[in-house]
Each structure stands twice: as C-alpha cells, then as structure tokens.
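@channel sequence for tomorrow's demo:
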Amino acid sequence: MRIERMSLHHVAAIAELDSACFSDPWAEQSIASELENPLSLWLVAEENGVLAGYVGSQTVLGESDMMNLAVQPAYRRRGVAQALVEALIAQLGERGSHCLSLEVRVTNAPARALYEKLGFSQVGRRKNYYRHPMEDGLILRKEWEN
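structure tokens (generated this afternoon):
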C-alpha cells in the first residue's frame, strides 16, 4: 500500500467512495477544489492502482481539522485508516501543525476505537451534528509537539 497526496486523478474515486460511505457526501467539485486550497492536505492510500481509502484535512494557524476519513469495504480491518491518520499527522507536523481535531458519530464504535488507539481524547460533543440519521458528534483532539 502506498500513501500519497491527493491529485486530480484521485478525485472521482474519492467522490465515489464518499458517496458509498456517508449519508451527506461531498460533491466531486468540492473535493477537487481542495487541491487549490493552500490550507488543505488530503492523502490517499492506493494498492495496485486501486483507491483503498483517503483522509482530508484543513489547517489554520497550526490547528488542523480532519474533514473525512473513508476506507473501501474490501480494505477495512487491514490498517488502512490507521496508516492514513498516522501519515496525515506526520505531514501536518512537518507543516507546523500541533494538533488535529475531528468529529465522529457517537455510534461509530470502530472509528472511536481507532482514534482512542491513536491517542485522541474527547474534548466536546456537538448535539445533532450529523443528519441521516440525526446523531450527536463527539469532538476528538490529539496534540503533539513539533
């Protein structure tokens, strides 16, 4: 598996995966616009030319926010998500970021377990943050020193 920065040729596959994984997916055009955003860092995991997963983030004043993390069903439980988040944190640190925050559905036990394993802590809760179905989002955060 290879992890690299998202490029234009990844956008359609990311949009397709986003639609398959999330009830409120990003439009392909919105994903593509992240390539032009200097605050954004999106990474993809590929295996034999197949998109296994992706992670997207934005950083402002040294604080980063993970917007989405998704892994193809066939690649789940194989360490793809963990590898993507670890690579993201490493690259964000190189860019001067000192923390990463994210929201996760309160019922998403596999994701919550992964984030806990990676050292994220709950710092808040957003009431009715998610739609389809309506659900609270937990705010998780990980800090590090550069």
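heads up for whoever presents: The radius of gyration is 14 Å.
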